[in-house]
Amino acid sequence: MEHSTDIWAAFFKTSGMLLFVIGTLLLLIYLLKRFSNLGVIKSKHNHIKILSMHHFSPREKVVLMEVMGKTLLIGVTTQNIHTLTVIESPEAINPDIATVVNSESKLYKEIVNTVNEETKNGV
Known about the structure:
Elements: H1 2-35, E1 48-57, E2 60-67, E3 70-76, E4 81-87, H2 97-121
Antiparallel strand pairs: 1-2, 2-3, 3-4
């Protein structure tokens, strides 16, 4: 009878290790999918670039993006996506400090004017 208990002990030990390995593999696959870009389709053409993003709330944000050479400021909410402005001078968003300091007030005024116009129009 001692051989029978040894077989059952080995069976449970082997089954436990098998379940541990399968669980670990499933956890690793989940983490890889969650934190990597496996689901993102890579394209040869980069027509859309996200330059900057600012979240106002979990469901509202403003996105500064470049689409086929045009720089756009987009407002995104749960209900819609709306173009706030098209920035005519791309040097206004150049990371060079001197350029940003000189054009920051112009860009800010352009954004404020666009938002005020949209608010007045009720859009």
